[in-house]
Amino acid sequence: MKFLTFAAVLLFISIALRYTSLIIRRIKESSQFGKKLHVLEPVLSLLVWIIVIFWGVNFLFGEKPYYNFIIFALIALVFASISWFFVKDLMAGIAFKLQNEYLPGDIVQFGQISGKLNELLLTHVSIYSNDGKLVKIPYSRLSNEVISQKSVGGSFNQNQYLLNVPKKYSVEKTREILLNLLINSPWRIRKKAAAVYLKAETSEAFNFQIQVETRNEKHFNYLITILKRRFDID
Q1: Do 52 and 86 belong to one domain?
Q2: pTM for this model (two decimals)
Q3: Strands, E, within 178-228: which ranges?
Q4: Would you state the pLDDT for residue 103?
Q5: Cα dihedral sign for 7, 11, 13, 14?
Q6: Could you tell me which residue, 193 or 220, shows the higher pLDDT?
Q7: E strand or H helix at 194
Q8: What residues contact 10, with CB distance under 8 A and at least 6 apart?
Q9: Residues 85 and 147 in one domain
Q10: Angle (nearest 5°) at CA 197 between 194 and 198
Q11: With contact defined as beta carbons under 8 Å apart, do 102 and 108 qualify?
Q12: CA-based Rg of the chain, rounded to a whole angstrom?
């Protein structure tokens, strides 16, 4: 009898949440409160189901000797599920940022959605779509989407720098080290070429001209600092 009662409660809650969802969808078009409620709807529905499940366990097994074990298992399952939804987007975000060099203002296309990139946050990216809407996309969803960059916001800094490098290695080896540092640096625009030219040579040092494009002067200074540290240059 208890199981039939519990099944009836589940059916009632399912129907109630369904109709509530339909009502929220209607009022979201006519009021600001409706829009906020629509955003919170998935969280509220999840909380309702969690409460119902815990009530059902208590209703069905409250007098059983293994009741506490079931409760602890449910709590662990709830925390694991919530953590997974957060962690998967967090990890996907880290991978996305390592593989791409997008910045706010870039014109991008993520799957069927295209527009101007607004923010790269911890678990999702937001863009202003071509129809003027602010769209938030979880990073885990982007892993299954075709991504393209149409143009970039702002302008790049085309930098040149003369660097005196002590003669610790041959000229070819020194140039190779410098070029590899430039290519692998996170501060360089990856789609832009970097170059290292020997300008002059003395008995103690090589004089190289560094050519590289960065997002801004600050990034260029970071990059030069990396080169200097590699050769212990003050």
Answers
A1: yes
A2: 0.42
A3: 195-201, 205-214
A4: 76
A5: positive
A6: 220
A7: none
A8: 52, 56
A9: no
A10: 155
A11: yes
A12: 28
pLDDT for residue 143 is more than 80:
no
Beta-bridge mates of residue 97: none
Listed residue (195, 194, 187) closest to 223, CA to CA: 187
SS3 at position 195 = strand
204 contacts 167 by C-beta, under 8 angstroms: yes
As given in the structure block, the two tokens for residue 124 are: 């999702």
**Structural domain harbouring 41:** 2-98
**Structural domain tally of the chain?**
3
Burial profile 70-108: b = 16 or more Cβ within 10 angstroms, e = fewer? beeeeeeeeeeeeeeeeeebeebbeebeeebebeeebbb
* Poorest-pLDDT segment among 75-84, 128-137, 148-157: 148-157
Residues 186, 213 contacting (CB under 8 angstroms): no
Confidence of residue 46 (pLDDT cuts 50, 70, 90): confident
pLDDT band for 113, please (50, 70, 90 cuts).
Answer: confident
List the CATH number of the domain containing 167: 3.30.70.100
